[in-house]
Each structure stands twice: as structure tokens, then as C-alpha cells.
Amino acid sequence: MIKYTTAGFFKGPLMQTSSKEQFLPGFRISIVDALVLVAGTAGAAFLRSESADAAVLLAMPVLHFFLFCNVFRIKRRKELVWAAIFVISSAFFIVYQMFSEVFLIIANFLVAAILIALETREPDYHGIFWQNINPGLEQWWENRSESSARTDQRQA
Fold it and tell me: Distance (Å, rounded) from C-alpha 35 to C-alpha 127?
């Protein structure tokens, strides 16, 4: 997988290793991520000619996948909270036609913004702009790694 930091520096192809061994915060993208983005964009563009609503329902999760996994790198639990809210709001949008696609987009981006803001306040925030938002991350990582190494030694 090819990884990039927020500064855009090439980190190079990575071997399959434990996340404990590598400190790779910031923006990242892989070939699979790029393929998902291209396929999602193409699918939404195709659906747009058939149904703008369907295009929105496809584009939203693809865009949020990219934001959550590659840009802000939020924890899985927050991703799942967003997904649940998206599914529920989409169901109301489809079944009851309670609101417009614009409302659906704005409401789900607001939820995403709240979840991202909460994530950036975590001591282990490691997404884009981590150097400015969480300057103590490297120290946190080293303390975590040292603690993990001591635990591993005790277990051996």
C-alpha cells in the first residue's frame, strides 16, 4: 500500500506489518481506495442521469468512506454511527419522502462534521493536519509502544 503524509511526502510501499511497528499518521491512500473512489464516482455519475436521488445515495457513503478512512482517519465506532444515521435518514428519505436530497446531504455532512470534530479531540487523532491539531501524537505513540513492549516482555 502506498501512503502519504499530510505534507505529501511519499512513504513508499509498505510490507504487511503490525500497526504497533509503524508511525504513519496523516493522509493516506491506496490503490484499492482509489479504485473505490473511481467506481463510486462513475456509478453516481451514471445514476445521476436516471435518478438524482439514487446518485446521492451512492455518492454519500463513497465520499464519507474517503473522508473517514483516508483524510481524517476516524475510529470505526464513529464511522458506524455515521453509517447508521445515514441508513436511517436515507430510509425516511426514500420511504416517506420527508425531505429533499439537499436536506439529506446537509444533515449527513453535519453529522460527519460533528464526528470529525470529536475525533480531532482524541489523544490518538492521526488524520490530516495531525501536527497542528494533535502535536503530542508522537509522544503518545512512543508511550503506547513502550507500554506494549513491556506487556509483551511480561507475557513471554
Answer: 21
Contact status, residue 6 vs residue 130, Cβ threshold 8 Å: yes
Determine the Cα–Cα distance for residues 129 and 71; give it in Å rounded to an integer: 9
Please name the residues in contact with 134: beta carbons below 8 A apart, sequence gap of 6 or more: 120, 122, 123, 124, 125, 126, 140
- Give the pLDDT band (50/70/90) at residue 144: confident
Whole-structure pTM value: 0.76
Q: Please report, to the nearest 10 degrees, the dihedral formed by the alpha carbons of residues 26, 29, 30, 33 taken in order.
A: 130
CA 126, CA 156: separation in Å to the nearest integer?
Answer: 30
Q: Give the C-alpha separation, 20 to 51, whole Å.
A: 45
